[in-house]
Amino acid sequence: MIVYRTVAPFSGRLATTFTALCLAFSFGACSAFPGLQRPSQATRPTPVTDEYICGGVLSTQQLKETLDYEIFTYRYNNIPAQSKDGGGNTKYDYMCTTTTYSNSLPFWSLELNYSSDDSLKGLSSPNDLVHFDDVPSRFPATVKAVELEGKNGEGLSWITDNGAHIAWRYSDGSMLDVYLAYKHDTPVTPEQQDALLQVFTPLVDAVPPVAAGPPDEAIYPTPTPT
């Protein structure tokens, strides 16, 4: 079994995800999204009961069985759009962010992204785009090639101090990536990285057809009208 080593954390990653979710709901303190408040045992929210979420591609049961990760909040957006370059190409913008209960150590959140290009949205900023081909030089200590039998494309797996990442670049240049964030600077074990790959593998085939449309979105728990 390969033993992974951690590299310099991207500490803004969790803050970016948290801020994006708060802004999406327009609640200054995310008061209507209890999962983001990391509730106490006394105010423990109701977990997601749907077997599949994020457009019907992510198995909540598989997450529970492989990573002991139980979803309490999520936000899903899928916005395919025709390119403005006149070429008739579709631009994909699929995102699903989930959070777990505060006592579900060591995890904090799991995020899926699928897009038409190979930039890693969670690691990129407007002035510093991180692309698929940049990963080996950015994370040389932990990056590993991912091979999935019978699937076209190429994959990478790597670890930071804040969590585990897997990305798959398809032959058409589009990319799917998953990020499993940790609440604390707990090293990712090889077993946990293998479990994340088990979750990721079926998504390689399942996400692109959903991302192709129609547009869709979902939120849990449903925000309280203001």
Explain what this protein looks like in three dimensions:
The protein is α+β, with helices and mostly antiparallel strands. Helix content is 21%, strand content 28%. The protein contains 4 helices and 12 strands. The strands form 3 sheets. The chain has an 8-stranded antiparallel β-sheet with strand order 8-9-10-11-7-6-3-12, with helices on both faces. Strands 1-2 form a two-stranded antiparallel ribbon. A two-stranded antiparallel ribbon has the order 4-5. A hairpin with a 7-residue loop joins strand 4 (81-82) and strand 5. Helix 2 (60-67) packs antiparallel against helix 4 (190-211). The chain is globular.
Write the layout of secondary structure elements.
Layout: H1 12-25, E1 52-53, E2 58-59, H2 60-67, E3 71-78, E4 81-82, E5 90-91, E6 93-100, E7 107-115, H3 135-138, E8 144-146, E9 154-160, E10 163-169, E11 175-182, H4 190-211, E12 216-220
Antiparallel strand pairs: 1-2, 3-6, 3-12, 4-5, 6-7, 7-11, 8-9, 9-10, 10-11
Averaged pLDDT: 79
Strand fraction? 25-35%
What is the N-to-C order of secondary-structure elements (H for helix, E for strand)?
HEEHEEEEEHEEEEHE
Q: Could you name the ranges where pLDDT drops below 50 across 5 or more consecutive residues?
A: 1-42
**Which term fits the overall shape?**
globular
N-to-C CA distance: 52 Å
Features:
disordered N terminus, alpha+beta, globular
Quick overview of this protein structure:
With 226 residues, the protein is α+β, with helices and mostly antiparallel strands.
